[in-house]
Design a protein that fits this description.
Elements: E1 2-3, E2 6-9, H1 15-30, E3 43-44, E4 53-56, H2 63-74, H3 88-100, E5 106-108, H4 109-115, H5 122-134, H6 147-151, E6 152-154, H7 157-165, H8 172-186, H9 198-204, E7 213-215, H10 216-224, H11 227-238, H12 246-256, E8 261-262, E9 270-272, E10 295-304, H13 309-328, E11 345-347, H14 350-359, E12 365-375, E13 379-390, E14 395-409, E15 426-435, H15 437-458, E16 465-470, H16 472-477, E17 485-487, H17 488-496, E18 501-503, E19 509-511, H18 512-516, E20 550-557, E21 562-573, E22 578-581, H19 583-586, E23 606-611, E24 620-630, E25 638-650, E26 662-664, E27 687-693, E28 711-723, H20 732-736, E29 745-750, E30 761-763, E31 769-776, E32 783-788, H21 789-800
Parallel strand pairs: 1-3, 2-4
Antiparallel strand pairs: 5-6, 7-9, 8-9, 10-15, 10-16, 11-14, 12-13, 13-14, 14-15, 16-17, 18-19, 20-21, 20-23, 21-22, 22-25, 23-24, 24-25, 25-26, 27-28, 27-30, 28-29, 29-32, 30-31, 31-32
Helix pairs in contact: 3-5, 13-15
Length: 809
């Protein structure tokens, strides 16, 4: 045999790059062991026995030389053994093979030897079988190092094709399920059971999972279910006393030819079948953008300069699948503790809660769960669930991470940093999407770190690879092809030298802990401070001068005569008596059919508003109001209009509000309400303060047991501005029919907040409102999300033009 390598040159490739690639290919081919075998080594055909033939696609250069070589092969001028006489022993083996073909599809080597008249050495017979295999008379894959492959001779190519078609079929998983059910029914009295392997159950039991995995028992089951395979197996079994069956031979053959790629895991042998992968993935399977500001997308990349990408992706996928399986069977936490079953939440008693929190702060607890695995020729998508301790809810909650690995070129929609790639280069991208709190700790611990380590190991023996880190801010704000990258070594060096962040050429500053996954658990601090390098904005307006504009807002339930769902807000318009607060204080914003219900569906409910009197420190209930403007699907805020005033201020938990007479506020401007101004202007690392009424418990008073009416404040700094991707908010009609909340724009602030601060204003040094508190990060309670003043001003403009309802007069 011979190998004729040909380099095809694209029309727009530079000559220097062509020569570099050709020399690299010559080096790789020259180092292959197949060309150094003493026997049956294939001949490497080179131009003038020196260099690889080059064919230019555009000019046609090299086509003539290629034709000459093909003609030389046809004219027997290339292979020295063509035309030579065949030995007498070879003819005898050939005659015996042709005679056995009449009754057999596959035979054993021992059977062939017993049928021959002349006694020959086994080694000589094997050499003749290899020759007959090369000329197409039979199929023989015998190796001196593999006894199983050496024992079987395939006489019928059609039989082998039929045997392979039992395995290599696009509906493999469906066929396995049906065959397993059929075989179990057939063996109901024999006691033999055909069960799915543990690794297949682990990786493919999730919703919409799709990956061609096949265990050794499953392959034998498929073959055993076919009558022509059972006949061949029975015949070979009668002629041999060896423990290895024909099914073992076929499995070994598929493994030898890399049709089945073994997963190096404990337990039953299981294989990945890359030839069954779909060629193209759905176009919308992955996006770098996220509609949630508490989510982030990280991306590491390996730029492949000289490696064959098809082989690399198969190797990477195999390594990743086996590592995911091993990771899912590793218990995280104290070995003495029982494994926690996965669910959305896991209520704990106070003692066990404290114990778990202390032992597993921000660590994975129990075993991970593989929710989804989807594979294609050049990509794989995995969804992983891990249990973490939730301090706020006193629960163990499952956190999800989506991981996408793909081999892309510069024309792919998912390719990053295409400016740094030359024509024909490939890039292996490894993306992870998860919670950004605590520097993405849940994302890193929840599987992203494992995937990166797995791929690093899989590529350890490859040359010409550059590892890079992609800027997550570029991915969030621009097209991925324009994203900036850093060298992985440079980022790691910055982190080891104590630098807290790096900046890309577009000016985005990103934490090295987030990029490297090097953050250790951090205990909550009472006060968040901006980085040491940040220029602190001078605070000029004292808090005391702002407090009278802060209000406590609650939902008044007239039936139960109590105040529910308490939050904070501020007075924004004294002429019209308008107050801004968080939408979730008065609306049901939990996903579902009741999403967006005003006053949580409570009949005849209304908003009750408490203000701080001029001569006091605690807020008193003074006004009732109505909702006049909201955009609850996209903005966690609403505008209230003061409608009535209670006859007397209510200085209690709110029960007395129902006993007071109400006076319509026909001219609310006479109340002379102090207001706060809003501003659209803010800067990153600018100091801000949250003003509001803490309802998270204070001292001996437990959370939810009483309504706090004493205002407090905390200080923090702005760290990010978030805007939803355009494809996340395509149309207003879509948002209006949605049953969930997806903000258009948010400001991210590092600042300690407590339940009840929701709706409270964040003010800058001048005392102007840059936004109101929407929520805190579910992972990092110091990370808060604000509704920016730009959104609040739109709601305010709508509220001013709403008619005044005087039905209560």
């Amino acid at each position: 045999s011979a190998i004729l390598p040909v380099v095809t040159v694209p029309a727009d490739m530079e000559e220097e790059e062509v020569d570099r690639r050709r020399q690299k290919l010559e080096t790789i081919l020259g180092s292959q062991k197949i060309f150094k075998r003493k026997h049956n080594a294939p001949r490497l055909i080179l131009m003038d026995d020196i260099s690889i033939l080059k064919v230019n696609v555009r000019t046609g250069e090299g086509v003539g030389e290629l034709q000459d070589i093909i003609q030389a092969i046809a004219a027997e001028r290339v292979f020295d053994n063509l035309g030579m006489k065949v030995s007498k022993n070879t003819l005898e083996v050939l005659d015996t093979i042709r005679r056995l073909k009449q009754d057999h599809k596959v035979i054993l080597l021992d059977h062939l030897l017993s049928e021959m008249k002349t006694e020959m050495y086994v080694h000589d017979v094997q050499s003749i079988l290899h020759f007959l295999s090369n000329i197409g008379e039979l199929l023989y894959f015998g190796k001196s190092t593999d006894e199983v492959l050496s024992r079987y001779i395939i006489l019928s190519r059609k039989w082998l094709v039929s045997a392979l078609s039992c395995i290599l079929r696009p509906d493999l998983q469906r066929e396995l399920c049906e065959t397993r059910r059929f075989m179990n029914l057939q063996s109901i009295y024999s006691g033999e059971a055909f069960v799915e392997s543990d690794i297949v159950q682990t990786l493919l039991k999730g919703t919409n999972s799709s990956c061609p995995l096949l265990s050794a028992k499953d392959s034998a089951m498929l073959w055993q279910s076919m009558s022509f395979m059972r006949d061949a197996a029975d015949r070979t079994a009668q002629l041999s006393e060896a423990s290895n069956t024909m099914y073992d031979f076929l499995e070994r053959l598929l493994k030898h030819t890399n049709i089945l790629l073994p997963l190096a895991v404990s337990g039953e042998p299981t294989y990945f079948v890359p030839s069954l992968l779909p060629k193209a993935e759905p176009g919308n399977i992955w996006t770098y953008k996220t509609s949630e500001s508490w989510m982030t997308t990280l991306c590491h990349s390996w730029l492949l300069r000289d490696v064959g990408p098809a082989t690399v992706m198969e190797h990477v996928t195999t390594s990743l699948l086996q590592d995911l399986y091993e990771f899912s069977h590793t218990f995280h936490g104290h070995a003495a503790k029982p494994a926690y079953h996965h669910a959305k939440s896991f209520p704990l008693g106070k003692d066990s809660y404290s114990e778990v929190m202390d032992a597993h702060d921000l660590e994975v607890i129990g075993r991970i769960k593989i929710h989804q695995v989807m594979c294609w020729k050049s990509s794989i998508l995995v969804k992983i669930g891990c249990c973490f301790a939730d301090h706020e809810q006193a629960d163990l909650r499952e956190s999800f991470a989506e991981i996408y690995v793909a081999m892309v070129d510069d024309q792919s929609n998912h390719c990053v940093a295409t400016d740094g790639m030359v024509n024909g280069q490939k890039r292996l991208i490894v993306c992870g999407k998860g919670q950004v709190g605590h520097y993405g700790r849940k994302l890193w611990k929840g599987g992203y770190g494992l995937v990166l380590d797995s791929i690093k190991t899989a590529l350890a023996d490859q040359n010409g690879i550059d590892r890079q880190v992609v800027c997550p801010e570029c991915l969030a704000l621009t097209h991925p092809s324009q994203a900036c990258t850093w060298s992985w070594d440079n980022v790691m060096s910055s982190a080891q030298n104590g630098l807290s962040g790096v900046r890309c050429v577009r000016g985005h500053s990103v934490s090295t802990s987030l990029l490297c996954g090097t953050c250790s658990p951090v205990a909550p601090t009472p006060k968040a401070a901006p980085p040491e390098t940040a220029e602190r904005t001078r605070v000029s307006k004292p808090v005391s001068s702002l407090l009278n504009s802060i209000v406590v807002v609650g939902l008044w339930d007239p039936k139960e005569k109590q105040v529910r769902s308490v939050g904070s807000g501020f007075i924004v318009d004294k002429k019209n008596g308008l107050v801004i607060t968080a939408g979730h204080v008065l609306f049901n914003m939990k996903g579902g059919s009741d999403f967006g219900s005003p006053y949580f569906g409570v009949k005849n409910a209304k908003a009750v508003i408490g203000v701080i009197p001029d001569d006091g420190h605690n807020a008193v209930w003074r006004y009732f109001g109505e909702i006049v403007a909201h955009d609850i699907h996209r903005v966690d805020a609403c505008v209230l209009r003061i409608t009535t005033r209670l006859e007397k201020d209510v200085d209690d938990q709110g029960e007395g509000c129902g006993d007071q007479a109400e006076t319509p506020m026909i001219d609310v401007s006479k109340e002379n309400l102090p207001i706060l101004k809003m501003t659209r202007k803010f800067e990153l690392e600018e100091t801000v303060r949250i003003l509001g009424f803490n309802q998270g418990g204070e001292g001996v008073r437990e959370k939810g047991k009483h309504v706090n009416r004493t205002v407090d404040f905390a200080e923090g700094y702005i760290c990010k501005q978030f805007k939803a991707a355009r494809d996340d908010n395509d149309s207003d009609s879509e948002s209006s029919s949605s049953s969930s909340f997806a903000p258009r724009e948010e400001i991210v602030v590092i600042c300690p907040t407590i339940s009840g601060h929701s709706g409270g204003p964040f003010v800058n040094g001048e005392g102007k409102v840059v936004g109101i508190l929407s929520r805190a990060d579910p992972v990092d309670r110091n990370r808060c999300y604000l509704v920016p003043s730009s959104e609040l001003k739109q709601l305010l403009s709508r509220a001013k033009y709403q008619p005044v309802h005087m039905d209560f007069v």
